[in-house]
């Protein structure tokens, strides 16, 4: 009798197992989305901003109980610290490939994006860029790279033209941090100034980790510059602005992208007042979903966004949306859908051109007034 009961139980368990196996929708598919950003070092705060933008998108997607190919899907974030270092970036890019990610959101640093992106191209994995802006990133002949933010040619190009035609600067100085981002942005600014008939009276550079700028600023002051355009990042830009004021320089400070954030104001202190910076896209709070996004981000993470969290959030959702439309998490299946994306994101309408760049990019000029960054004007790229 006992043996008979055991046989019945075994038969029942076998039947249940076969039923589950014949219904793949019962199984849960894990879909990994990679993130590469600097989580340590100088760029860590912005890297965390990017990571949290993706994390928020993934949490919301999982709350929707999405199915792909009839299977329940659980999205997971696979995050790596590229340290803002090209060598490390290449190593951790391969790690993401080995970990089985189906899409990657990255990068913060153009100097990391350039050597790392071919690794994802070789693996057939889409890379969606929320922050790295050197134009060359999407000009490498890679079909897997997409960018949802204006390039340096567009952002710094707007800055150069505006400096000459609107600000009416007569004697313009330029300084960069010698990174792929900084040098590229400075070059685009210079080209735009020249095209608008402006005059560059001084061109200097520093290193991305430098904290002392006396030699460069002394040269710029001697050239009697009335505007200094700095192509670099927030913390260093703030230190540079402080030193300008300490030296009694009256030149208008204008920064490239990645500067108009709370880090700049905190580090620069009172010297921040009046500083200007060009950032990518429209002010998030002016967009239909912007205010709600800022509120839920702060509620979830206990901090305001810096610059790139909304772009990273949109990157993740663009990838997830492409998977939903293609009904598959296989990159070779959803990548064609990604190329034809028409998505209304937090940062605005997202569509890609033949290179994978944003079709209708914009830039916004901000100025510090009473200790806060205030939008001055928004310009569409020509």
UniProtKB/TrEMBL annotation:
- Tell me the Pfam families matching this sequence: Peripla_BP_6
Where does the signal peptide begin and end?
Answer: 1-27
Gene3D superfamilies named among the record's database cross-references: 3.40.50.2300
Q: Which residues form the Leucine-binding protein domain?
A: 31-371
Alphabetized UniProt keyword annotations: Amino-acid transport, Plasmid, Signal, Transport
Which GO BP terms, alphabetically?
amino acid transport
Name the InterPro entries on file.
Leu-bd, Leu_Ile_Val-bd, Peripla_BP_I
> What PANTHER family does the record tag this protein with?
AMINO ACID BINDING PROTEIN, LEU/ILE/VAL-BINDING ABC TRANSPORTER SUBUNIT
- Which protein family is named in the record? Belongs to the leucine-binding protein family.
Q: State what protein this is by name.
A: Branched chain amino acid ABC transporter substrate-binding protein
Q: Which organism is it from?
A: Paraburkholderia largidicola
Taxonomy of the source species: Bacteria, Pseudomonadati, Pseudomonadota, Betaproteobacteria, Burkholderiales
